[in-house]
């Protein structure tokens, strides 16, 4: 099987956002790149950093994508990468932060609403469809009356930071399970945790 998968990790550019909840999608892609020994490099045609790899020798090709734009304009880079590689929408996996899921939880789905996530909204607009795969990485709800936008742009708490490597590992495993076994089997495995 050599069909190409496009795996996008959402986040914001710049060191001030690197370790924030909103950038957990890009952290998952860093984990996947590390597992396969690949490095990201700039891709001028798409305003993104890419790493082309395989999960294992002879396995399907993966293009790991970290947009270099701000989260709310992720659609342009994603659309450009999809066109550049001639990829089908059913081979697009978007990894993103999700405030409606408890921290340390990963959920998988295809399509559906964006739940106020501007990065997903922009990708949906650019692709002309909501029907792409999503790896939703739980970052929890903001405490008290804190604004959601402020919350996701903050770094993880110290207790969350100590648990973060396991969360990133689980989310990277979820991406691999979708590619290797399909969405339903991956959901059965990941959601059972």
UniProtKB/TrEMBL annotation:
EC number: 3.1.1.29
Keyword Lipid metabolism: no
Site feature (Discriminates between blocked and unblocked aminoacyl-tRNA) residues: 12
Principal location listed in the UniProt entry: cytoplasm
A Pfam family that the UniProt record links to this protein: Pept_tRNA_hydro
Site (Stabilizes the basic form of H active site to accept a proton): 97
Residue positions binding tRNA: 17, 70, 72, 118
An MF annotation (GO) of this entry: peptidyl-tRNA hydrolase activity
Annotated Gene Ontology cellular component terms: cytoplasm
Compartments reported by the entry: Cytoplasm
Keyword terms, alphabetized: Cytoplasm, Hydrolase, RNA-binding, tRNA-binding
Active site: 22 (proton acceptor)
PROSITE patterns linked to this entry: PEPT_TRNA_HYDROL_1, PEPT_TRNA_HYDROL_2
Keyword Ubl conjugation: no
GO terms (BP aspect): protein quality control for misfolded or incompletely synthesized proteins; rescue of stalled ribosome
Catalytic reaction(s) noted: an N-acyl-L-alpha-aminoacyl-tRNA + H2O = an N-acyl-L-amino acid + a tRNA + H(+)
InterPro entries per record: Pept_tRNA_hydro, Pept_tRNA_hydro_CS, Pept_tRNA_hydro_sf
Top-level taxonomic group: Bacteria
Function: Catalyzes the release of premature peptidyl moieties from peptidyl-tRNA molecules trapped in stalled 50S ribosomal subunits, and thus maintains levels of free tRNAs and 50S ribosomes. Hydrolyzes ribosome-free peptidyl-tRNAs (with 1 or more amino acids incorporated), which drop off the ribosome during protein synthesis, or as a result of ribosome stalling.
PANTHER family listed in its UniProt record: PEPTIDYL-TRNA HYDROLASE
Assembly behavior: Monomer.
Family under the similarity heading: Belongs to the PTH family.
Protein name per its UniProtKB record: Peptidyl-tRNA hydrolase
